Amino acid sequence: MADAKPNSMKDIYIEKVTLNVGAGKNEELLKKGLKLLEKITSCKPVETKTQKRVPGWGLRPGLAIGCKVTVRNGCKELLLRLLAAKENTLKASNFDAQGNFSFGIPEYIDIKGLDYDPELKIMGLEAAVTLERPGFKVKKRKIKPSSVGKNHRISHKEAIDFVRGLGVEVN
What we know:
Structural class: alpha+beta
Shape: globular
Largest sheet: 5 strands, antiparallel
Number of helices: 3
Low-confidence stretches: none
Number of strands: 7
Distance between the termini: 39 Å
């Protein structure tokens, strides 16, 4: 038998990178978070608002408690910069069962290309990375959406192998 071609439907790619800064009820921290996310991605971040009332924490519906930005174009370059801030190491516990992973960066000044801003002081952020394969559109389409078959889903091990291919060490 001739050399078998690898199945292109099994290729994994980065669908999006979502950056998040939690501010709680602190409005000043929220403004700093919005500025930081715009500085990192050059995209306009949005505020995240509470949906439920939690009297013990002083939360009410519609209160802005954080901000986030989703990057789809140029997300691989951004991810490599973020992983370099983590010294290209992740834990296996950073990965979920669906093949996505997330990690935190305690200080934004560790990210390549960003300098200390006295107005922002020291802030951290969280990054969540969504991995997909060709064919995942069936779960998002408008007409007759369907679930992705279990053999086509990205497993924990496949996601770790994909990240190792980017030059990241996973413990």
